[in-house]
Amino acid sequence: MLNDTTLLLELDGVSVARVERLADGTRRVHLVPTDEAARACPTCGVFATRVKGSAVTP
Predict the structure, then answer these.
(1) Which of 51, 55, 46 is nearest to 32 (CA)?
(2) Which 3 state secondary structure label does DSSP give 37?
(3) pLDDT (tens digit, 9 = 90+) per residue, 7-44?
């Protein structure tokens, strides 16, 4: 699915829910799946039911 998030972040299957500016000037971007398959583990196929972690990217 091509959307603005895909174009901006090169991430397919997700959309930006909100963005926060942190005290150190960096931003925290909260993403939500727009494609149900994006919630599934690519190895076992089990769907996530909760947030299990976060990733920091440059």
Answers:
(1) 51
(2) helix
(3) 777 777 778 888 899 999 988 888 887 877 777 887 88
Token pair 């994006």 in the structure block, residue: 38
């901006």: which residue's tokens? 8
- Which of 58, 44, 46, 12 minimizes the C-alpha distance to 31? 12
State how far the alpha carbon of 58 is from the alpha carbons of 27, 44, 52, in Å.
11, 28, 20
53 three-state secondary structure: coil
SS3 5: helix
User: Which residue, chain included where needed, has tokens 């829910």?
Assistant: 17
